[in-house]
Specification:
about 200 residues; mainly alpha; 8 helices; 3 strands; about 45% helix; about 5% strand
Amino acid sequence: KLSGKRDLAIIYLGITSGLRAAEIARVTLLSITQGKDCYEVRVRGKRNNHDPIGIDSTAYNLIMDFVTAWNAKLAADDPRRIDNETPVFQPLMSGSHIPEIGTHKYDPARGLSARAILKIVERRTEAALDQPITAHDMRRTCAALMRSHGFDIKTISSQLRHRSSATTDKYIGQEQDLSRSLLSKRISFTIPQESQS
């Protein structure tokens, strides 16, 4: 189904890139380029920044899988086709039906709204996890995954385009070293032999 392809691409892109819902809504084929080591996406973010964000080949392939499936359902001259400047993520009717222009105020040049992306993420994650997560949780997940894989705060802040690493700290919290709180590191305990058996 088209909706499954689209929604998987949205969620995977959100979790692996840290893009905001509004930024995901602005992704076009023209905004994605092949970089030296990965694909790069440039979309307008907060404060009108257009900083490049790296995305992996899986994200790119999921996007292209949706675009190919969408365009395959339309004639070559259909204005609803996704081209280089059309937002990649488009609304659907009843899961797999491409809406007619003008119905429900559908305009291919506008694509999905950030609000629609929020609803998709919540609906899909609730169905999969019995608990909805928000689109912003995808950014937090991206930060937490980067932290757990050894990325430093500066790199994570750069990926999320935070002005301050203090904002990034709020996303991931402080890494805990539980061994520091072990009382036995400061006090030597003698345990009787019979208690050890």
